[in-house]
Design a protein that fits this description.
This protein is of the alpha/beta class. It is built from 12 helices and 20 strands. The two termini are 45 Å apart.
């Protein structure tokens, strides 16, 4: 697994992770906003009994997706929870309501599947909505039920992103055992969006494991090289669709592209064929000193439950939601597992300072350059921890951050101009093009917060995180020439 010459394969476990289902859970807390969409108001009250798979909050008048009880039990509390951005996973200021359920001893998820081959696409989209699956993606999955700012007619391509390339992050699908069901899920999606092309994108390692996968007229199978930034849907789309207009900004669906996570086809199969809504998520758990697992756990279970007692007892470990390149520090292990959460990585904390570290040969130190002898010993296992390994220093203008940037922006220039409040210059540097891969911070020898600063600059742009903004200059400086678009009713209605 190479990132511009960085051999991150050294961080991967040699064996495949075990797949497990945890049990004996006392409570779950269901967030009333999971992924894209508005926060919902509770549809149940304290003392109410709920069944597993029951809709406990729904609002068809707002852009949202129903919230579903993952386990049967009694509602014991309405709480407030931290919220996170559906795509970047950054913590947001707003709180969302959560319904806390005391789990009963008897659990029975009843569902009735359908003969999907004969079903109308509109009805399949309704099933996805009622199963809680339409909050996935950058802007939600379009249906006739106000689940997205786009209509179904805007979907020209559906991209299933099956690429996992960050260190310690595993696939959450057991392709050896589950691929027949997974394939059925892809076929259901092809019928759900009959005017679209389905793209299933894998890394070459998994494709080789599955053998030669043949593409059909509606479902195309792609494989890409394992490079870190390729785990980002925008970069995958540029690679397989050769769509340069994606650099013009906006949402992916502005360009007809609906990007969905790896687990989505399997969840679609379960919802449509088995009649079981999306009530159990999957988490990849790993790290240098952590057993490699993929755990299937109820939505709303505490993260510490998903991690397990042995893992949680490692006080010297730092837990990251997502991969170590672009993830976020887990600050509260009582936080409930959400729909979009798919990986937790534990990195050890550094054990004190190393005396005269610059004199050491660095056989196990990973580096963007050949500064360490590890470049001469590519098969030597590398060490990863959560330390910066050096203090923050002034920029030395090495240009490494721009060398590795997959979208050709200048992170060090954005940092410099942003810190000096040069708003017009930040606008010219187009921070919205960033795909949050984290490579700029990874290679920076001065330990500068490049990725974090570019993210902040994106948030403060007129178009927000996603909308790319063009400017022209007048006497007062740069002004936006693309007005903020009304997000409701984006695209044409489908029949």
């Amino acid at each position: 697994m190479k990132i511009f010459g960085l051999d991150l394969q050294q961080y991967e476990a040699e064996k495949e992770p075990d797949f497990r289902v945890r049990d004996k859970l006392k409570t779950v807390t269901i967030p009333l906003k999971g992924g894209f969409g508005s926060s919902l108001s509770p549809g149940v009250e304290v003392g109410d009994e709920v069944e597993a798979g029951e809709i406990i909050a729904r609002d068809d008048d707002s852009i949202s997706t129903p919230a579903i009880a993952s386990l049967a039990g009694q509602v014991i509390e309405i709480v407030e929870l931290d919220s996170y951005h559906e795509e970047t996973a950054d913590k947001l200021e707003a709180k969302v309501a959560g319904i806390k359920i005391k789990v009963s001893s008897k659990q029975d998820v009843r569902g009735d599947g359908i003969e999907w081959e004969k079903e109308k696409p509109r009805n399949l989209r309704e099933l996805l909505y009622l199963a809680g699956l339409t909050s996935f993606g950058q802007t939600g999955v379009p249906t006739e039920f106000n689940s997205s700012i786009f209509s179904p007619g805007k979907v020209e391509h559906v991209l299933i992103n099956g690429i996992k390339t960050e260190p310690f992050v595993h696939h959450v699908i057991d392709y050896g055992e589950e691929f027949p069901h997974y394939k059925t899920g892809l076929e259901i999606l092809a019928r759900t969006f009959p005017k679209s092309q389905i793209h299933f994108v894998l890394d070459k390692k998994i494709q080789e494991k599955l053998g030669q996968l043949s593409s059909s007229q509606r479902i195309k199978v792609h494989s890409v090289e394992n490079e870190s930034y390729m785990s980002k849907s925008k970069m995958v789309a540029r690679e397989i669709l050769e769509e340069e207009k994606l650099d013009e900004g906006g949402y992916l669906l502005d360009h007809g592209l609906l990007a969905l996570p790896e687990v989505f086809p399997l969840a679609t199969y379960r919802a449509v064929v088995k009649g079981v809504p999306f009530i159990r998520g999957r988490l990849s758990l790993s790290g240098p000193d952590t057993e490699d697992l993929v755990v299937e756990t109820p939505i709303g279970a505490p993260i510490k439950y998903a991690l397990g007692k042995d893992t949680m007892n490692k006080a010297e470990e730092l837990t990251i939601m997502g991969g170590p390149l672009s993830g976020n520090k887990l600050e509260n292990s009582d936080l409930p597992v959400s729909k979009n959460m798919d990986s937790l990585v534990q990195l050890p904390k550094p054990q004190g300072s190393q005396i005269l570290a610059w004199l050491h040969p660095g056989l196990r130190k990973n580096s963007y350059t050949n500064a360490f002898f590890s470049a001469l010993a590519p098969n030597r296992q590398k060490v990863a921890d959560s330390g910066l390994h050096g203090e923050e220093r002034p920029c030395v203008y090495c240009g490494w951050c721009s060398d590795v940037c997959p979208v050709d922006i200048l992170p060090y220039q954005i940092l410099k101009t942003y810190n000096h409040d040069k708003v017009d210059e930040v606008n010219r540097l187009q921070p919205q093009r960033c795909v949050d891969c984290g490579l700029c911070s990874y290679v920076c020898p001065s330990k500068l917060p490049l990725s974090e600063t570019v993210k902040q600059a994106k948030r403060e742009q007129p178009g927000g995180n996603h909308n790319y903004v063009e400017y022209e200059e007048d006497e007062e400086g740069l002004i936006s020439v693309i007005a903020g678009e009304d997000e409701k009713g984006r695209g044409e209605e489908s029949e």
